[in-house]
Specification:
Layout (H helix, E strand, L loop, with lengths): L22 E2 L2 H6 L4 E8 L12 E8 L12 E8 L12 E8 L12 E8 L12 E8 L12 E8 L40 H8 L9
Parallel strand pairs: 1-2, 2-3, 3-4, 4-5, 5-6, 6-7, 7-8
């Protein structure tokens, strides 16, 4: 069955622009750089946890099996990056700029992306429970097959955001418009979406029954 509402067009994504000749790098290379820049690099198995690194720049980089759990990246600028099987649990990317980045099979439980600016970003098969996107700007962002339980999307600005087969249980969309979005393939037992956020959102018939109660409607079976 098709969802009810305005059908949302699929998000047109621009993938990360990675050159073929990436250089092997270690996290110490970034720390040693005076401007905290890492460019055209690939890194595997790095562990940089419970640290603080402000205003770092990551461009045309690839990370595999790295852990940045509980690390504070204040105002990070990350462009053209691929992260596979990485752990950013409880990392802080507050006010970060994240552009043309693909997160695949990553753990982002409790990650703080409040007031961040995300563009052309894909989260594929990621664990993102309890993540914080408060007042973030998301443009051309795709969440695919990811767990978003208890995620806080309060006050976000969405444009061409796609949620496909995600777990949205207990997700909070207060003060965020879902106009043009499609959540019909997503699952949840409870979700916090105010009435004013729903116009223009595509939902499944089953979801529509639940939302009808918000409008004071009685569904007759």
């Amino acid at each position: 069955m098709k969802g009810i509402g305005t059908m949302a067009a699929k998000t047109k994504m621009i993938p990360p622009q990675l050159p073929a000749d990436l250089n092997e790098a270690a996290w110490e290379d970034l720390l040693a750089d005076e401007d905290h820049e890492l460019v055209r690099a690939t890194m595997s198995g790095a562990h940089f946890e419970y640290e603080v690194l402000e205003k770092c720049t990551l461009s045309k980089v690839q990370f595999r099996g790295c852990s940045f759990a509980h690390t504070k990246f204040e105002r990070m600028d990350m462009t053209d990056a691929v992260l596979e099987n990485c752990d950013l649990s409880n990392a802080v990317l507050h006010k970060g700029i994240i552009h043309r980045v693909h997160f695949k099979d990553c753990k982002l439980t409790g990650v703080n992306l409040s007031k961040a600016n995300l563009g052309f970003v894909t989260f594929e098969n990621c664990l993102m429970n309890l993540s914080d996107f408060v007042e973030a700007s998301l443009k051309q962002v795709k969440f695919n097959g990811s767990s978003l339980q208890n995620v806080n999307f309060y006050g976000c600005k969405f444009k061409d955001v796609e949620l496909h087969e995600c777990d949205l249980n207990e997700a909070d969309f207060n003060d965020t418009s879902l106009k043009g979005m499609d959540i019909s393939t997503c699952t949840y037992e409870r979700i916090d979406i105010p009435v004013q956020a729903l116009p223009g959102c595509t939902v499944s018939p089953e979801q529509a029954i639940g939302f009808a109660k918000l409008f004071g409607l009685k569904v007759k079976y």
